[in-house]
Amino acid sequence: MKEKKEPSSTGALSWFTDRWKTSIRMHLLLYAIFGIAFYLLLIKHILPERVEIQTGMVSPETIVSPVTKIDLTATEEAKKQAAEKVDRVYAKDDRLTNQQIDKIDRFFADIRKILSDDGLSQAEKEKQVKTVLNETISDDFPESFYHTLSTLSPEALTDVRLKAREIVHDILEKGVRQSELKEKRESVDDKILATMIENSLDSKARIVLREIAKKSIVANEFYDVKQTEQLRDAAREAVRPIPINKGQIIVALGEVVTEDQYRKLEELGLLRKDSNFLPHLGLGLLVISMLSALFFYIRRFHRSVFRNNARLLLLFSVLLLTLVGMKFIAFGQNLEWSMIGYLAPVGLGTMLITLLLNMELAIVCAMLLAVAASMLFNGENHLLFDFRYGLVSLISGTAAAFALTDVRKRGAILQAGAVAAVASMFPITALHFMLPSEGTWTVLLQSLAFGALSGLFSAVLTMGFLPYFETMFGILSPMRLIELSNPNHPLLRQLLIKTPGTYHHSIMVGNLSEAAAEAIGADGLLARVGSYYHDIGKTKRPQFFIENQLKRLNPHDKISPNLSKTIIISHARDGVEILKQHKIPKQIQDIAAQHHGTTLIKYFYYKALQQERDGDQVRQEDYRYPGPKAQFKEAAIVGICDCVEAAVRSLSRPTPSRIQNMVNKIIRDRLEDGQFNECDLTLKELEIIANSICETLQGIFHSRIEYPEEPVKGAKQG
């Protein structure tokens, strides 16, 4: 759909000045106002409801978690318990085991030498035994033990050594911690008892074995701090974070609030004791980001909206109306109607923007509305964005916009609504199949029903609001133009009855203008309908215009050129007044006022020059239309075609070459007269317009064969 580039859109906003419509400050103010309204509509949907509650109180309601969040306190407690369950790690030092065995061997070797020395007395032997024993094993032996040890036979010493080695090795090999030292030494008695059963030892040998073995048992297993901490760290890491799941009941209705529940409410930000400004800041940044993107998009691709604040106000009015409708639907979302978000009338916004502005802008706005839908309908799933509603809204709104491209009748709106309804069903079904756990078949059918109703509901609302927007903002939608082109319109019927010649002329001008406008990419429908009404002012004095005189006397022959000029000029002003009375849109009024621009009424100007008397001075300015000059392409095209149609009709032999020369001359004269200085027609476009007009006129004034007369009945056939 081609973008409409009318110079003004006033209607109910006509009291605003042109300066207001082009003010950049007002432009930014409109963005700010819409941004604030957008923010206020969404803020309640990102902030959880806060409660005023204390530990030990009875909860007045059931409070659930609005989000999934890690319970940091519970997770840390679980990690602490997991670490505490890890036992201390002890490392056994086998060197100590070997060292103790070596001491036993060395001790008994030294004792054997001492006892086998016949040159030593018993007292000396006992003294040396004590010295060796204190140096190798321990100094904590009773005095009697030294005597007992020194009286053992060599065979007994051998048996004691072997059994001591065996007992000490068995106990130390299993590891002895400092805390177990007493217990392990006491276990020597059990070992000796077992030895006595297998090997008989005398009482003295058992005493020596018992004391030597006990004193040889030392701690050889020690606490490994590093490895223990590594295992505890691993145990902590193995603990999975404990979540507070979305929808999880924190406090049930009537339940006494515990400290742990109060802590969870505090971590979730559900307590009213303090205010959190971060969600407000986040939403504000999101709104600013989206509106900034919209600002630069409109500035780059839709200059007619960017330069006209009235059009921007129209855009924001449609978006705000749609958002309010979506907000109203959001109030009905609950557990029973959880899928009512699919009823969001996003199509209302995209269809109105397509019809009143253009389709490309409508599709971009569908993205903005989709983001809003995903936030407005996030209530039951406790998500910031529920992508399901955003996706369905985007597809439905975009389909509605595409379905309204180049429509020419209002019935197409209902068809577009049906297209949007069907388009919404595909993503709804796809999402249900991809997330089967989210609902039953009943939920699917309910969702499909809401999606279908959304498209039809949007179409009905569009048909209802469209006339109001057209009137308030003076927007000429294609459907409104089609209605104005109906020959049964009261003004066109009045034109046909009072001025049949002008009516025919206007139809011809409409055909020429539409073809020329479409050739350069302008609004052909606007040019055609504007042509139908451009000479409506002639209905006030139809007999003063030659196409309506039908061989009657020309009244201008009896009046002065100055009076004739005044009557001719007045038809443009009279036409604007008539169009205003019948509430015809401003663009049509502009065409009626601008199609002659400030051109010279040459016939009466030259007639006045011929009748000029001495002392009188005929000024060319007095015989020009008051203007204004054409302000937009369609008005300039209608002016060219109006002049061309009248000129070509006056040709006695409208051959292609004469038509082309006439068209080129009219356009060249207007160009040199500065009639196109205030519209954005280029020389290339003027050439295209000239070629289009010539092609259309050649189709109208094509040569025809001369039919032979019917032969007289009874004449002789040759």
Provide the descriptors you would attach to this structure in a database record:
rod-shaped; disordered N terminus; disordered C terminus; mainly alpha; two-stranded antiparallel sheet; 718 residues; 29 helices
Strand order of the largest sheet: 1-6
Distance between the termini: 62 Å
Rounded to the nearest angstrom, the radius of gyration is 52 Å
**Helix tally?**
29
Structural class: mainly alpha
Shape descriptor reads rod-shaped
Low-pLDDT stretches are 1-17, 712-718
Give the helix level as a range of percent. Answer: 55-70%
- Give the overall pLDDT as a whole number: 80
Strand content: under 5%
Main sheet specs: 2 strands, antiparallel
Annotation, overall tally of beta strands = 6
Structure report:
This protein is an all-alpha fold. It contains 29 helices and six strands. It has helices spanning 18-22, 24-43, 72-84, 94-116, 122-136, 143-150, 154-173, 181-198, 203-216, 225-238, 259-267, 278-301, 303-306, 309-330, 346-356, 359-376, 387-403, 411-434, 441-473, 478-484, 490-498, 500-519, 524-533, 561-581, 586-594, 602-610, 633-649, 656-672, 683-700; strands spanning 63-64, 69-70, 90-92, 221-223, 243-244, 249-251. The strands form three sheets. Strands 1-6 form a two-stranded antiparallel ribbon. It has a two-stranded antiparallel sheet with strand order 2-5. Helix 18 runs antiparallel to helix 19. It is rod-shaped, with a radius of gyration of 52 Å. The two termini are 62 Å apart. Residues 1-17 and 712-718 have low confidence and may be disordered.
